[in-house]
Please model this.
Amino acid sequence: MESPFKAEILKGKVALLTGGASGIGFEISTQFGKHGASIAVMGRRKTVVDSAVSSLQSLGIPVLTFCLF
Model:
């Protein structure tokens, strides 16, 4: 489905997403990133966070990570 929002509507913004590495949070991370935001992903499972980072970076989305143990 094509987004109704401008492609760069979030350019220059940073989205901090807790739980942004899986499920609905990951899709929100992806959509925010596709609309120009840099993403900061927080999660408890390092392997899941690392996988999300790889996926987001492969789409050209700038991403930072924080693992909470």
